[in-house]
Fold these 2 entries.
Entry 1:
Amino acid sequence: MEALGLLFEGFAHAFTPLNLLFVMIGCLLGTAVGVLPGLGSSMAVALLLPMTFALDPTAAFIMFAGVYFGGLFGDSTMAILMNTPGQASAIASTFEGHKMARAGRAPQALATAAIGAFIGGMVSCILVVFLAPALADFSANFGPAEFFALALFAFVATSSVVADSVLKGLASLVLGLGIATVGIDSVSGTERFSFGVPQLFDGISLVTVTVAVLALGEVFHIASRIRRDPAARAMRPAGRPFLSRAEFREALPAWLRGTGIGLPFGVVPVGGADVPTFIAYGTERSLDRRRKDPQFGKGAIRGLAAPEAAGNATTGTAMGALLALGLPVSATAAIMLAAFQQYGLQPGPLLFERAPELVWGLLASFFLAMIVLLILNLPFAPLWAKLLLIPRPYLYGGIAVFCGLGVYATSSSTFDLFMLLTIGLLGFVMRRYKVPLAPLLIGMVLGPLAETSLRDALLSSGGDYGVFVAGPIPVVIYVLLAIALAISIAGRIRARARQDV
Amino acid sequence: MAVYAVVAAVSITAATVFSFQSASAGNDLRAALTVIAPAGVGGGWDSFAREQQQAMRGAGIVNNVQVVNIPGAGGTIGLSTFSTMHGQANTIMATGAVMLGGIALNDSPVDLSDTRPIARIAEDYNALVVSADAPYDSMEDLIAAWSEDPDGIVWTGGSAGSIDHLIIAQLALDQDLPASEITFIPKSGGGEAIQTLLAGTTDVAVTGYNEVEDQIAAGRVKALAVSSPERLEGVDIPTLSELGYAVDLVNWRGLLAPPGITDEEFAELEAIVAETRESAEWQESLQRNRWEDSFLTGPELLEFIDEDQARTTALIEELGL
């Protein structure tokens, strides 16, 4: 219970009016940046980095915590309302969240997302407070063989989004895997699909593809249909601005499951918060199939609740990993690491001893940031939903501008803008011919993870394939995978047999 | 709320746009200067550029300093943009050992001779670390095991062709081991490299000493050697050179001026950089980042860059990259 005492000291440290103000500013800024497509919280933290020279460490980190979590709360807002996610971790929220908005349940969808993010973040923060030192040992169990098994598991877990039209789904997935291979191969230094263009040497960033395919593709699509079907898609937010008791009860298990899925991912460096959001979405979807009245595809509240909770649960433990291990598992965490170094502090096993008042103050400020964000986001949900009342030409024109801004701000390169436009057109064509977009993004997220872990494992074992089943964790994952596949195949055979009768 | 979104977006763009505008207007170098960091936010060059920015501004040497990031391809995207900024004296760019690797690795059509190097400013050193329960207690143990089974020891560090990788190549050549047989797992930073070490995926990590200092102090990893020419102050780890290994690559960082500027402008930039180096603010950031001062200018600098480029290119070829 020593941790609890230290945490309360941290609260005492964080609870000054000035620090509360910094939390507020950070949360507002983070939300604002998260809402804009292409601008993630890493960008906001990077721009704030020079502030660290003027502020004392506690105040600066408290503000960063606000920005970090604010970005994760904010990115789902546009994902739900406009189908234009701010960053990769919000992709999974578009699938059902945007359908909810279309069905006139935008405020409820936003509230679901906000509460999900709150639950996920809170649980993970509590876990970090009590288990930060143990995290170090846990993460040491994860090598490339384990990552590879996880990646395979994630592919299967998310395959349900491919299943609607197998051919088109697979085409989209392969396209995503292909885009992910562009650039100089990190192990051999070979150029892959870069055509000698130096701007492609580092590959195509996931942010550019996400913004192009989802946001810009949507803009083109709307523009192409604007005079053809104007009335059909008028999305008037209707109903009460908050969740009903029934909705809350419906979403609660999904929030908790999502949190459970997200927690372990923060500690292991497998590409940040996007992988667990897909897994959480896939899990909910397969659970939904077995219910009497499947909700997925019509705006299922669970399909939104789970990925939101998973994404934020990952963030919390990721911050724990940064503090306890000095291991930055996301871009934002990497920049926060730089900020720590500005103060001459090195996150890692010794930080808890060297600067306890800072660490516990920061952990306390996570809780404050969560609460502030929930207070900010819940009442504003109906207000945000009013964005949908803006006439569409202006609304989507604005989105297009922000897409360009976001991508240009990260790279200062016009090449990326052309790439944005090209991939945006690709997204439009895919929409036009009803090719699902999610598999492309899943391929881009999971492909590199599977590839690097496969190669790292083989390099490390000297080419011995036995390494993939050498440890207990991968074996357990493969067994789970086999069971899941068997159940799903059995279910399908039974369904077919019934049809025959 | 939309108001906040707009304000944030406008200020973010404004920052980026103005920093470019200020680069192309005005002649007074001490009024406004732009430092290009040819890497993404949070990387080594980025923090170097931002520390320079703070020192120049804090010491009142330059009024308004902006940092612009042009990431990509080991700094060569930034370099090729920079090499076209003819005569724009109020834009300077960070450079260093990693860029020389990038030039060799990517067969870049431009190199540092397309710019006017101002100074080498600081460097940091690498440490060779193994996990705490590894069977190696000294470099000797490690080299013995390595000589027996050249591709059996799994190394890790930064990206392929990075300074970490090149140090291993130099060590291999020094021991008459074939550099092309090195098993190297590239990771995107010291943190990730240490993680693979602790998970047992790799045997030895070569990474910046300042990135692993605390892990060493906490007893999670053992340091076998550091790559500095002399022992680091207050650090009880032998250097590679005192152990008799001919490894002399260091991770240096410096600043470049664009081509086509007048000699007066170049002299003014040199003066600014030299004054910044002397400032208390810069001395403090050297200490904070655990960088070592390695100031070098003029003809010696050009000579050093030529040598280092040749050496880097040769090593990358040996590695078969």
Note: Chain B has two domains: 2-124+250-318, 126-226.
Entry 2:
Amino acid sequence: MSVHERHSDSEITERRLLQSTVEVARHVFDSAAASVFLVDQETGDLVFEAVSGEGEQHLVGTRFPAGTGIAGWVAASGQPMIADEVAAVPQFAHDAAESTGYVPHSIMAAPVIRQESCIGVLEVLDRSATWRGDLADVDLLAMLAAQAAYGLDLLLRLRRAETTLPTAPGGDDVHVLLQRISDRVPRGGGAADPTALKLLAVAEELLH
Amino acid sequence: MTQPPWRRERREHFPGVPAWSLATSRLAPEEFGVSRLEDVTREWAWGGDGAGGDGTGVDGTGDGVAGRADGAGVRVCVLDTGVDGGHPRVGGLERSLVVADGEDLTVVDCDPVDPVGHGTACAGVIRSIAPAVSLTSVRVLTDGRSGSGAALLAGLRWAVEEGFDLVNLSLSTTRSRYLPELHELADRAYFRRCLLVASAHNMPVVSFPWTFSSVISVASHDEPDPMTYYYNPAPPAEFLARGVRVPVAWRRGREIRSTGNSFAAPHITGICALILSRHRWMTPFQLKSVLYLAASNVVVSKGGAHVRA
């Protein structure tokens, strides 16, 4: 959960894009809930990243193991699908569904694909019976999944940038930084890295 | 009977198929099964089911109408999440295999189980169309992790070498690094008389193998008859079969109604099995032509087909 409690300002913007996608999905299908899962690239787990409707207060950050239910199949195969009358199937990913506090009758899910790999799943629970046509529903869901792909991609890029640039303690105080640099420079005119010297020269210019 | 050309050993020191070897001046072409295709109807193709769309198609009862093909003698491989061999809609498997973890990705026998349910659904659809067909499952999708393209390739290569008549592929990959090998494999399958039936992807992304011309690609129509299918004159999806609210087998002996091209492809696989069980001699090229001529929107009447040019 830790990563979801620590929202930087920019992450909130990225998250709003995903949130708006699930809001739109929930409303066009007049459904009980819509959500986007992120596929954890290391474990294959599915993690709720944005939820509209049932469970929106507590589900973000919840994980399901790889290959769980419809969303797991969609992530593995890259094929969108709709499953109806799933409530009639007691074992149907029931554990996972129950742990969310809501057991649906129907599930629609589409893969969220960026740069050739499935990075997530867009899922809509209990769409209304209003007749749009099932084929039209699948197409529309696929389009929304394409939009979710951009949102999720932005969020992933942001997190990657955050983890690769850990801010050292006091890194925003120029005096502390300069002190640390001067501690590292070899005394007595030893050879410093020429690239580092050039960068310091540039930094000096910028500070003017 | 000598081995048909597509089953012969490939020559070790002279690979490829040079066109000039086909000259007929000194050697008559070998004999092969033939139809001028003028008389191809649904009746001719598999014994017929009425005009299609009248609800007379079999519905999983497996009793087979007299005079109608039932898929006997045809071997189908389902590349998917595994198949629950004990499910009543599946009606038993010839073999159940899995692409093993590890670097060499060997294909090994395994219990007939399906942790997800999707492969069981596809196998059940094929069985409902072709009750006497022989089904084999190869599990290539084992978990939700992406990057399973290597397992797909290993499973498909095994199925092609094994000489299955039909391979059902209700899946696709978006990873371009698998493209050349998959393409080569699809072509080899085609020439070895192993027809790949792949579900089309209705996402705004590039994926394969359904986009290859050496496979049969299938998208969905929304009518309830399992034997109604349409030729699509605007490929890459070549045929449209039942894919909306299909009653399918799922995990642990259950059933659900599912929508998606994943469930349209096995309808065409089943229909191909019917045609092949009646006309064993067909090459993929001929089978695709018969599939076209027997499509619900290509009925020949008053001297012309009913497809708009």
Note: The first strand of chain B starts at residue 75 and ends at 80.
